[in-house]
Specification:
The protein has about 220 residues and is mainly beta. The chain has helices at about 15-25, 65-75, 145-155; strands spanning about 5-10, 30, 35-40, 45-50, 55-60, 80, 90, 95-100, 110-115, 130-140, 160, 165-170, 175-180, 200, 205-210, 210-215.
């Protein structure tokens, strides 16, 4: 599943622009007083100024065998969120490893190295190793209802989990992370998960606003 464009909302537009362009060193595509867009490999990420914004969780696919290099690179720029006491989370059931950190809005950002994608290169780790946006969290009280809405747009497979607490939909290239916030908190911080507004384009095109999926035309 491809995520071509992801739009999130921010109460700290200038700080977020500095973070993504100067700290993470992502190419700036466009910017004005109301929003900015950066390039993440084949995907783009936009932040739109808003008076309120719940923290979101999203993930970025990185080169498949560079998680240790990624850790060294990110630790020079921002504090890493520990995963049960470790800097790197071992998702052996996904054939992947990941690390997490906050951006300036408290969004939980994840770098995930998926061996199934087999993205290989030999240059030192840099922002060019950020391959694509690979996950976006969808928080609700009914994972099955969210799944049914997405599956009605276009058939989608359950990658992992179940509808009760946590369910990942899609494939190694792209996933929707469904979280029932009455039964599960965000990993790895164990903070409360609240519905975060976003717009998405790619294989699926919709907005998630005020906890509701709204279909959008491309």
């Amino acid at each position: 599943m491809q995520i071509s464009e992801l739009t999130l909302f921010t109460t700290n537009l200038e700080a977020q622009q500095h973070f993504y362009t100067q700290v993470l060193e992502l190419p700036l595509v466009a910017a004005d007083t109301e929003n900015f867009t950066v390039k993440i490999g084949v995907s783009s990420l936009t932040f739109v100024k808003s008076e309120r914004a719940n923290p979101a969780h999203f993930a970025i696919n990185i080169s498949s065998y560079k998680i240790q290099q990624a850790l060294q690179w990110i630790q020079k720029r921002v504090a890493v969120l520990l995963c049960e006491g470790e800097a790197i989370a071992d998702f052996s059931n996904w054939n992947a490893e990941a690390l997490y950190f906050y951006d300036k809005d408290g969004n939980i950002v994840e770098f995930i190295a998926r061996k199934d994608l087999d993205v290989i290169n030999t240059h030192p780790f840099s922002a060019s190793d950020l391959v694509s946006i690979s996950e976006i969290g969808i928080v609700s009280t009914d994972n099955k209802a969210i799944y049914e809405q997405l599956n009605a747009m276009r058939p989608i497979e359950v990658y992992d989990g179940n509808f009760e607490r946590f369910c990942a939909l899609g494939n190694a290239e792209g996933l929707f992370i469904l979280v029932n916030n009455t039964k599960k908190k965000w990993y790895p911080t164990l903070e409360e998960a609240y519905p975060a507004d976003f717009h998405i384009k790619g294989d699926y095109n919709f907005a998630f606003l005020n906890g509701t999926i709204v279909t959008e035309k491309v």
